[in-house]
Amino acid sequence: xxxxxxxxxxxPSGWHALQIVALPRDTNQHGLIHGGWLAxxxxxxxxxxxxxxxxxxxxxxxxxxxxFLSPILVGQTVGCFTRILAIGRSSIRVEVDAWVxxxxxxxxxxxxxxxxxxxxxxxxxxxxxxxxRSA
Length: 135
Known about the structure:
mainly beta; 1 helix; five-stranded antiparallel sheet
């Protein structure tokens, strides 16, 4: 017998790092928002979260995965929510979830993508630097 583990009331969690409205210029030939557009915004949200955590500049070193769960329509508000998963000497692994909703109808958030990103802390010369930890 299987157990249903579906969340009956899914909601975004983590730090709300980025919010943007999907516009007509961001669509493909089918009128849907490009996956690359969303991936770029998810990367930016991860970058902001890791800059905040490392207290300085970071660079993307890997996108481990992005799973696109549902299409995004023009006019929907896209929110990217981040959770820091691990911090190494100079690297940070972060989960980024993308959710959409219509602000006009105050509809609930709907998850449309999830991704795992890795960033490395860098100095002003673009060289890897150690992440300073609070004592």
